């Protein structure tokens, strides 16, 4: 894409419904946010893959309900998709049939191992592995992360946590966060989705060592608390990147359960993340000056530099 932001007719913007209206009414960062999401065809593939995985698991493990969750359902996934891109599926297990996993010694680890065995049989040519709370199936086009769960009876779920010696289950409420995210996004005219995608693309382009979810929640918190509900995408992106070094430094909590999202970051990664965020901030300040002076072409160029589109 070069160092600038793609115009509306850039190839990256094709094969997608422009749900935000006529492109002439959109700005460069609006179009960029649209361009970096998955295409409609990729979205269909993700949904079909999810359904197939659920069918496979249901043949050997009793499932009472299942959900697609994560960035795809919130509209914050970024592309182009690759084997490192992931989408999330939760399969809620029958407590009557599989309650020993919830209560037994090493139950959470045994549960993940059982899910892994089922998927390995069906996908012998794919890499299937356990990663803390999920079983990952790495396909050539993207990765699906399957989280087995039990209902907690209060609208949330318990998922395995192998970081606690295989004996614990941790609470999660993906629907709670999705509801909050959608409420803010609707109140801001869909601009939270856009800012989140731009933020994630910045993370990816500049290899900022924070998780994708961590970056999204920082964007959510910034937009949620911004005093101007009519702020443009440019203003929100500029403001978010301006605050990014400080947000990385001070830490971020999950908006639903209050857990620290950066608890696993060591000091080296935090320093690197802050350094790269400051580089983006410096370029974004230059973009803001161009925008305010009416230099649209210069602003687009600086936006691209700030977001790391010139980084190989």
From TrEMBL:
It holds the Pfam family SMODS. InterPro entries: CD-NTase, NT_2-5OAS_ClassI-CCAase, NT_sf. Residues 1-51, 247-312 are annotated as: Disordered. CDD domains: NT_2-5OAS_ClassI-CCAase. Residues 247-275, 287-304 have a biased composition (Basic and acidic residues). Residues 276-286 have a biased composition (Basic residues). Coiled coil: none annotated. SUPFAM superfamilies: Nucleotidyltransferase (SSF81301). Signal peptide: none annotated. This is Nucleotidyltransferase. It comes from Halogeometricum salsisoli. The lineage of its organism: Archaea, Methanobacteriati, Methanobacteriota, Stenosarchaea group, Halobacteria.
């Amino acid at each position: 894409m070069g160092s600038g932001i793609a115009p509306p007719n850039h190839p990256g913007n094709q094969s997608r419904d422009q749900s935000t209206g006529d492109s002439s009414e959109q700005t460069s960062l609006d179009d960029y946010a649209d361009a970096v999401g998955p295409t409609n065809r990729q979205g269909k593939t993700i949904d079909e893959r999810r359904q197939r995985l659920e069918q496979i698991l249901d043949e050997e493990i009793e499932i009472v309900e299942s959900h697609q969750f994560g960035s795809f359902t919130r509209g914050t996934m970024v592309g182009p998709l690759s084997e490192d891109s992931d989408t999330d599926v939760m399969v809620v297990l029958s407590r009557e049939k599989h309650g020993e996993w919830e209560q037994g010694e090493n139950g959470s680890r045994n549960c993940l191992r059982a899910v892994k065995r089922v998927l390995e049989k069906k996908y012998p040519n794919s890499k299937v592995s356990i990663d803390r709370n999920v079983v990952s199936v790495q396909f050539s086009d993207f990765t699906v992360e399957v989280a087995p769960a039990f209902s907690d009876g209060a609208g949330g779920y318990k998922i395995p946590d192998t970081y606690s010696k295989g004996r614990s289950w941790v609470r999660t409420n993906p629907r709670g966060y999705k509801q909050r995210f959608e409420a803010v996004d609707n109140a801001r005219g869909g601009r939270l989705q856009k800012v989140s995608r731009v933020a994630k693309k910045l993370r990816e382009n500049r290899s900022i060592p924070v998780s994708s979810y961590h970056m999204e929640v920082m964007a959510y918190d910034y937009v949620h608390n911004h005093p101007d509900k009519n702020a443009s995408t440019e203003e929100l992106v500029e403001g978010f990147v301006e605050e990014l070094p400080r947000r990385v430094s001070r830490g971020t909590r999950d908006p639903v359960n209050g857990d620290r999202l950066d608890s696993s970051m060591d000091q080296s990664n935090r320093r690197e993340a802050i350094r790269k965020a400051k580089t983006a901030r410096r370029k974004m300040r230059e973009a803001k000056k161009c925008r305010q002076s009416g230099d649209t072409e210069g602003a687009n160029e600086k936006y691209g530099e700030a977001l790391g589109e010139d980084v190989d």
